[in-house]
Design a protein that fits this description.
Elements lengths: L3 E6 L2 E6 L4 H7 L7 E5 L2 E2 L15 E6 L5
Parallel strand pairs: 1-5
Antiparallel strand pairs: 1-2, 3-4, 3-5
Length: 70
């Protein structure tokens, strides 16, 4: 297994350690997993599957940050 993988995040290439699940990868990339919505390889990935989904090289993530306001 390679030490690092390359993935697409919001259309840009990024690297992260291999073997991370979705929340771990998001944290590595600087996101708070509780405050984002995620599209994974073209489909919405529901939170119940995040901890069991391992990020692999070539995956495409679209991350939208949730912003509160008044």
């Amino acid at each position: 297994m390679a030490d690092r993988i390359t993935l697409q995040l919001n259309g840009e290439s990024h690297t992260c350690p291999a073997g991370l699940n979705v929340p771990q990868c998001l944290e590595h990339l600087g996101f708070n997993p509780r405050l984002v919505a995620l599209e994974y390889n073209g489909e919405i990935l529901h939170r119940q599957f995040w901890t069991t989904t391992e990020i692999r090289g070539g995956d495409r993530l679209e991350v939208v940050t949730i912003v509160g306001g008044g």
